[in-house]
Amino acid sequence: MGGPLPMTGFAEQGRLLDDGEMRRALTRIAHEILERNKGAGRVVLAGIAARGDDLARRLASEIERIEGVAVPVGVLDITFYRDDIGMRAEAPEVHQTKIDFDISGTTVVLVDDVLFTGRTIRAAMDALVDFGRPQAIQLAVLVDRGHRELPIRADYVGKNVPTRKDEEVQVRLAETDGEDAVVVGERT
Amino acid sequence: MPSRVLFGAVRLVDPVAGHDAVTNVLVEDETISAIGRDATGGPRVDVLDCEGLILAPGLVDLHVHLREPGFEHKETVESGTRAAAAGGFTAVCAMPNTDPVTDNSAVVMEVRNLAEKAGLCDVFPAGAITRGLAGESLTDIAEMAEAGVRLLTDDGQCVQSSRMMRLALEYAKAFDVAISQHAQDAALSEGWQMHEGYYSAMLGLPGVPAEAESIVIARDLALARLTGGRLHVTHVSAAQSVDLIRQGKERGLRLTADVTPHHLSLLDEDLVTYDTSLKVNPPLRGVEDREALREGLVDGVLDAVATDHAPHAAEDKEQEFDQAPPGTIGLETALAVLLTELVAPGRLSLSQAIERLSVRPAQILGLDEHGGPLTPGRPANLVVFDPAVEWTVGEQPFFSMARNSAFAGRALKGRVLHTMLRGTFTVREGEPTR
Amino acid sequence: MIKHLLSINQLSREDILKVLDTAESFREVGTRVIKKVPALRGRTVVNLFYENSTRTRISFEIAAKRLSADVINFTTSGSSVAKGESLKDTALTLQAMGADAIVIRHSSSGAPHTLSGWVSASVLNAGDGTHEHPTQALLDLFTIREHFPSFEGLRIAIVGDVRHSRVARSLTFATVKMGGQVTLVGPPTLIPPEAPAWGAEVSHQLDDVLPKLDVCYMLRVQRERQRQQFFPSIREYSRLWGLSRARVEELPEAALIMHPGPMNRGVEIASDVADLPRALIVDQVTNGIAVRMSLLYLMLGGDGA
Fold this sequence. Notes:
The structure holds 3 protein chains of 3 kinds. Chain B is an alpha/beta fold. Chain B has helices spanning 77-86, 105-118, 141-146, 162-171, 198-203, 211-227, 239-250, 261-265, 287-299, 314-317, 334-343, 350-365, and strands spanning 4-14, 19-28, 31-35, 46-49, 54-57, 59-64, 89-94, 122-125, 151-153, 178-181, 194-195, 207-208, 230-233, 254-259, 304-305, 382-392, 411-421, 424-428, 431-432. Chain B folds into 2 domains: 4-55 and 377-432, Urease, subunit C, domain 1 (Roll), CATH 2.30.40; 58-365, Alpha-Beta Barrel (TIM Barrel), CATH 3.20.20. In chain B, helix 4 (162-171) links the parallel strand 9 and strand 10. In chain B, helix 1 packs across helix 2 and helix 4 crosses helix 6 (211-227). The two termini of chain B are 22 Å apart. In chain C, helix 7 (166-177) links the parallel strand 5 and strand 6 (181-185). Chain C is globular and about 55 Å long. In chain C, 51% of the residues are buried. The model of chain C has no long low-confidence stretch (mean pLDDT 92). Chains in contact: A-C, B-C. The interface between A and C is medium-sized, with 23 and 25 residues.
């Protein structure tokens, strides 16, 4: 499911969120989802591989803790829907997709780690629509770093962080990277 | 007014005369006029500075396919002899698998006339052993010998019948001709595409084992012993065959053999790209076979190098591997291949190489005018080449009509500058004169 | 990823795993209601089939279409292939048409190699003469992986006319590369003496080999081979190297029975054996589509530079 982030070639320059801040942000987002949708009734979570699905699972357990409802969680790999296939030397690496529930008539909350140009979300919406016809699609992201290239906006944001375009934002999760943190840095 | 040409400061390599030194060579009209450091030729002489170059008797090829009459879309006598001259040859033996087959004196004369008209290289057509190459009845050997034939062969085909081969060897004894066998057992070779071995199994191509060649050679040696006839084995390709020929010579049989430049340098493993330029008959074989062929050439068991120059039209070679006809052109690369693969690494001396490319083939064909010696009064059939020039095969157009060279793209060392046929340049500064 | 798939030997161990892992994702696509993704939208895949093979051609066609590519079929039953146009001229036509990939099946070994020299498209070998059938080997490995988690030490026997089988070559090369143990079984006339150099064992006694197998892979034996006298009679062949019901009892319970199809029932495999549930013959179709989608995606999903 993605694997740990490469440590080489990346020079960390700042910490945007530590583990405590990340935990509180996710809790707040879980509350916001329940508030906006008036409960968990028709909500399903679709995490965008590779880190979105870990976040989606955390959100699901928060929602269960708060509301006592287990919302369905799916994993969505958007690789096949990317708009840049054929532009790099190798075909983009694929991850697993697992949506074994019907999304028609539901409110699908897409979950991703970083919102940047918006192209991933555009691809995710195209992918979702091939699975069925949701009643609504909402978007939850841990970090919104600006620089949108498409008319996409998040409904739930952990933290808004202005960045330079050439900077890189890394979300590290305990499940795969051994720690919970969001860092900003440069490619070396 | 006599035409006079002086090759100045050239290294004259003449195996028959036993000459290998830098000297001047003066040619007057059709013959060698003088040899020596003080030969200058006086006024009105065409002087060529040949420092660093080598002068040798013109090369002689025992086995070329000129394709005319019948296959003029592949090559003609004119284009083929032009290619021969470009390769340093002054005489070639043309194979009889033409259309009509060269199995009678009329076709023999036709080929000779075409060659004479082109004036680029002497052609001694080979006559077929059997009518129509069908393997069933002998040709009029005496008649063809009178028309100038020195060698008989069914090349392309193998004389399969032991009885026919025996009769051919026996009957030909009365005439000064060699019987040359393309050794290939038909039943073992059915459907063959390449040498049977590790590579044919991996590439999924039907293979023909070396035994298909050696079995026929073994039989023919027995028949040569039985009849006392004169046998030549052409394009030997396998270690087993070299062993048999060595034994045959040790037993005193009237036996000679030739090997191609491509069998001396290329291998079956080169076929992994299914390049049809490398599809040849007999096929390229393995490392041990190539080594045995090289050793055989060095120690004289294999007498001569003959190209088996086999031109094909581009569209015939640009097909699926199993559809493409076998053959590679070779006249324009033969000398360079020998120099690069055997002389430069020190396995053959220059003099030995010239022996195998010129002297021995001339002797096998009984050609007095070719193969040297290049001494005063002798016909000026010679080649001048630069042993050091590096070139890539195919970078410049071939003079042959065909392009199917097994050496395409390879880097070779050594190139012909001048070729002279009876004192007339057929190639000058690398360009044919006609 | 390599530009052309002409021989399975061009793929490294890592490449093969990548193809199989990616095929898992495409297998999932096959379970969706909309079995289509836009990954290769706008690309053109040509099926150039000089030999009749409906199953393989359809498998490639479905694979390409599920990737949203456009598919053009050049087959022997129609178009220029039947009219005797040379391979080179056909290649130039396809080049002019802007094909991105050409899937070729041909009766001449090496035809895909030859074709790749004339086109800038990616060439995929769907079976050439008696040389190779790389996609078949990959789909066979994919199928095997559903039942055995690792290829390391996997014991597979390939039984029959190895000499003339492109499937046998590709599967042997692939299995050995992945760490499996291959035993080639059949009459000596149908197993090339050089086969041990491929990393395989050779046996002429099928009964000795059966009890220690994870996969028993039966090759099709053409009746033509008996006419060519590679073995004296169908009866003798079938008795010594055919997979009979009795022989199936000798196989370990977990062992798979596989056959690339089409089968010569009664020659290399008994009819009732072919219909057993553990004989995975028909089910390789689904896996074939996933594996071929994976190959097309990996080969065309890069910039092709």
